Amino acid sequence: MLKLPLYIAHRLSLRSNSRESQTGVVIAVSGITLAVVVMIVSISVMCGFKNEIKAKITGFDSQIVVAPHSGQSDDAPPTLSVNELRHMLDSLPPGTRWSLTARQPAIVKTSENFSGVIVKGMEPDGEWDFVRRNLVDGAVPDFSADSTLYHVVVSHTLASGLNLSVGQKADVYFVGNGSYRIRRIMIAGIYDTHFAEYDKNVVFASLPMLRGVADIASDQGAMLEINGLGSDDEIDHQSVAISSMLVSGFYSGNTSRTYMVVNLHESAALYFNWLALLDTNVVVILSLMAILAGLTLVSSLFILVLRRVRTIGILKALGASNQMVRQTFILLTLRLLVAGLAIGNAVGLGLVYLQRLTRIVPLDPEAYYLDHVPVEISWPSVIMLNIAAALIAFAVLLFPSAIIATIKPARVINYE
């Protein structure tokens, strides 16, 4: 049924000797192109921000943290054993990673200044990739050697405040159980994630060092960190499942104590609320751009109809129905949409790739936690964007195309 309208729309040229008509076509394609570029860039920036911020938060907090409730053992720090939680670990989805860690409050002191920190001890073969990606000086220690037991990685913020550099040493006062212990550490590396709230507080060290400081057994840790889960929904689902399993294990006697389970969305709720605002902003931008593209197409349809009133009259005089003529001009207008989509996708994706390669657009890390605009192409989103644009455009054009039904052949065949 659409073969004849499609053929006529294909044969009709969008070009015209009229400057006004040519200008209308250019404006239509430009408007659609601009809308598509803005939408692709907005979605890419939103995805980039989400992934970068989540990666930084996960590097400090982990997706799920399991720790024993405090106050259940006299003066000894609460610890956990992998063997007691083996039934829980065996239930995790394939690809999930877990590792023992410990955290200890401490004071780093130099001859000139001091600062309170949290020393995070990780297993030598643990999640050190995050630290390596954010190193700005030095290196992650090789903890296989005994001489590196007290080597640590500090933040650029802490190093600047205490005037420390790679290779220098400092005293650390570990606080806990009503007393403190002093250790001499050496700065092996300096990292910078631009997350000031975390950077100024977290020092990365080896778990064996903290085990010695806090008198933790060699096969135990203060908490169990779980990573490698996919979506946010999976993190929430696994968090609830693990919590339920541990409660059941305590009442059935499989575990000797109760545990608390905290996921990333709870420990870093402030940042996820901020990311939720980005979603709202993107929805507003997409809505405005969709309105712009729709208005551009409607105005283009009116221009095409007005410039081809005589053609419409001839088609009707030859027996074409109003529906067929409407379909013809809708398809003709959709050619403008296709041109705008093609150019918009090329320009939008090109800008995204340019930003990814060059990081040419900077950001203030104090405000955005990043020193450049992060971008990531979500191909499903780009595909859905183009499909939605085509469907919305077709729906938008149905009503204004009804003007064709009011055109009388006898009055417009001689129209100039």
Low-confidence stretches: none
Number of helices: 15
Fraction of residues in β-strands: 15-25%
> What is the H/E string?
HHEEHEEHEEHEEHEHEEHEHHHHHHH
pLDDT averaged over residues: 84
Largest sheet: 10 strands, mixed
Rg, please? Answer: 32 Å
How would you describe this structure to a colleague?
The chain is α+β, with helices and mostly antiparallel strands and about 425 residues long. Helices cover about 50% and strands about 20% of the residues. It is built from 15 helices and twelve strands. It has helices at about 5-10, 20-60, 85-90, 130-135, 155-160, 195-200, 205-215, 230-250, 265, 270-305, 310-315, 320-360, 365-370, 380-400, 410; strands at about 65-70, 80, 95-110, 115-120, 135-140, 150-155, 170-175, 180-190, 200-205, 220, 225, 260-265. Strands 1, 3, 4, 5, 6, 7, 8, 9, 11 and 12 form a ten-stranded mixed beta sheet that branches. A two-stranded antiparallel sheet has the order 2-10. A hairpin with a 4-residue loop joins strand 3 and strand 4. The two termini are about 30 Å apart. The model has no long low-confidence stretch (mean pLDDT about 85).
